[in-house]
Write a structure and sequence with these properties.
- This protein is of the alpha/beta class and 327 residues long.
- Helices cover 48% and strands 17% of the residues.
- The strands form two sheets. Strands 2-1-3-4-5-11 form a six-stranded parallel β-sheet, sandwiched between helices. It has a six-stranded mixed β-sheet with strand order 7-6-8-9-10-12, sandwiched between helices.
- The longest helix is centred in the middle third of the chain and has 17 residues.
- It is elongated, with a radius of gyration of 25 Å.
Length: 327
């Protein structure tokens, strides 16, 4: 079935049918007539023909570092909702932390005629910087604040400072489990927040005892065991993520220490496990789903600019400290 045949059956012009499929202005009466024909004959527009006609594929590419993260899943939920509202679909690519794949996917998505790219940022390498600068389609980064590209990210420094201040009000031997500082947000910015809280408390950032973990429960458990060896009298552990915090709690329980009677623990993320754990975890609530929807809306604006240069946007989201039983 062609657009011309749909127009004849609906008693409208071909231009009206074209506006119907391309989101143009149309009276309710004509929209209902066309919709009735489309539903009756189960008509699906030819996506290739539509792409050739409009120059838009109706798809964006999403690049994530891993798929097992609570933060990634929440951001993806926001992305999926916002793209559906904009009548867009997406292609998901996972790098599995292999940084060279980010560049490969950015190049492949341009060849695949994606309308734009959403990149969940981790580390800005020279190769990634070059790929972003050469990218011929709009691109938005989530979770990181990278210069020269539109970003939607979280206030990692101040959120971490606030939860560390809360810990320092209750405990006097506080240690920290962070992640690789090549990660600007979860690594460097969150540690900076902890150091700021120490400095404001008159302790000095040089007194901070810390370990580095990956983003897993196992990593958090191992890092906590190392800290217990370094600092046997510790009574507070601030963690860069919820998963690390749950790992730390496991290590403390294995060592015979009770949470929070002997040691207080905090995380970042506010994932579902924080509610069902015993005790429930004190954490920072970051607005991951909002991050996803905001990034999509920003990308849609750039796509609809049709080649006109949009100003670079740098959007920092808020946070909330959720105090529960672990502190």
């Amino acid at each position: 079935m062609t657009i011309k045949e749909i127009a004849q059956l609906a008693g409208v012009s071909t231009a009206a049918v074209s506006r119907y499929f391309n989101g143009g202005s149309l009276s309710d009466d004509k929209r209902k007539k066309i919709a009735k024909v489309v539903e009756k004959y189960s008509y699906v527009p030819n996506s290739l023909a539509q792409t050739m006609r409009t120059g838009k594929s109706g798809q964006v590419g999403v690049i994530v570092p891993h798929i097992h993260s609570d933060a990634v899943s929440q951001i993806m939920a926001g992305i999926a909702i916002a793209l559906h509202e904009n009548e867009y679909s997406f292609i998901l690519c996972c790098t599995d932390e292999a940084r060279e794949k980010e560049v490969e996917f950015i190049e492949a998505m341009q060849r695949g005629r994606m309308d734009g790219i959403l990149l969940m940022g981790t580390v800005m390498t020279p190769y990634l910087r070059n790929a972003i600068e050469k990218c011929k389609i709009p691109i938005v980064v989530t979770g990181q604040s990278f210069s020269g590209v539109s970003c939607v990210y979280h206030d990692d420094v101040h959120s971490m400072k606030d939860i560390t201040r809360l810990m320092l009000k209750k405990r006097d031997r506080v240690v920290y489990i962070g992640v690789n500082e090549e990660d600007e947000a979860a690594g460097r910015a969150r540690k900076k927040g902890v150091e700021k809280a120490f400095e404001e408390a008159g302790l000095g950032s040089e007194s901070l005892i810390s370990e580095v973990s990956d983003f897993t429960i196992e990593g958090g458990c191992l890092a906590a065991k190392k800290l217990l060896e370094k600092c046997p009298d510790l009574n507070g552990i601030v963690c860069a993520t919820d998963r690390i915090a749950h790992g730390a709690i496991l290590a403390l329980k294995e060592s015979g220490r009770k949470v929070p009677k002997d040691v207080s623990v905090t995380g970042v993320g506010n994932c579902w496990a924080d509610i069902v754990s015993e005790p429930q975890l004190t954490t920072v609530k970051l607005y991951f789903e909002q991050c996803g929807t905001t990034a999509v809306n920003l990308l849609m604006r750039m796509i609809r600019a049709d080649g006109e240069k949009e100003p670079i946007s740098d959007i920092k989201l808020g946070y909330q400290i959720i105090e529960r039983g672990s502190i």
